[in-house]
Design the sequence.
């Protein structure tokens, strides 16, 4: 089951926050966070216009994630709000269910405070004790330096490069770096 429980952390600025399993009743706050991030973050696949999920769909998505043995959704939250979200999903077929892909984002005002590190460490802790999961993978824009730094710090290595995988507009192409970390 996609459940991490909860763990307390302290940000670089001294503020406390908790990393915990995202629950279906977090749906509205997770949606608000993701909408804000899709509107400003340049290194994401989904555009703001494409992000049309309703609160009901988000709630269903979080419930399905909670119920699945190889999936997990985590939030980082202060006393008052959800400030970051991470989702990990393993493969749907038998031969790829030992590995999965993560995506994550931190609310703009809370970046570079160690929140992303805490979220990803929590995912790796969950994955290391999950009997199904052996490998955590991700794809990141080659020019997303803060994200690549974070992944390398936590032991991810580069496995390849998908050239011009992203076309943001005419002549605006970006490469995608494939990264992964074994957790078995
Ligand atoms: C990528 C992201 C999740 C990182 O979260 P975060 O909370 O800022 O991460 P942390 O503060 O734990 O760590 C960021 C690291 O990048 C480093 N960093 C930040 N900006 C940097 C830059 N311009 N150049 C080099 N390193 C940089 C920080 O110093 C920090 O490393 P350190 O802990 O060794 O000092 C966050 O920036 C984000 O949400 N970005 C928008 C969405 C996104 O791009 N998601 C990733 C998709 S693959």
Sequence:
């Amino acid at each position: 089951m996609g459940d991490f429980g909860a763990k307390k952390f302290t940000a670089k600025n001294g503020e406390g926050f908790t990393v915990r399993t995202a629950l279906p009743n977090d749906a509205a706050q997770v949606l608000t966070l993701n909408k804000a991030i899709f509107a400003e973050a340049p290194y994401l696949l989904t555009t703001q216009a494409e992000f049309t999920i309703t609160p009901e769909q988000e709630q269903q998505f979080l419930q399905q994630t909670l119920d699945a043995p190889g999936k997990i959704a985590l939030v980082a939250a202060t006393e008052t709000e959800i400030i970051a979200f991470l989702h990990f999903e393993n493969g749907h077929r038998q031969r790829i269910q030992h590995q999965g892909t993560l995506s994550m984002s931190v609310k703009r005002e809370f970046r570079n405070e160690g929140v992303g590190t805490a979220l990803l460490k929590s995912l790796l802790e969950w994955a290391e004790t999950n009997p199904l999961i052996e490998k955590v993978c991700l794809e990141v824009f080659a020019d997303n330096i803060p994200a690549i730094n974070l992944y390398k710090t936590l032991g991810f290595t580069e496995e390849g490069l998908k050239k011009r995988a992203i076309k943001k507009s005419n002549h605006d192409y970006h490469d995608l770096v494939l990264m992964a970390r074994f957790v078995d």
User: Anything to note?
Assistant: The mean pLDDT is 95.
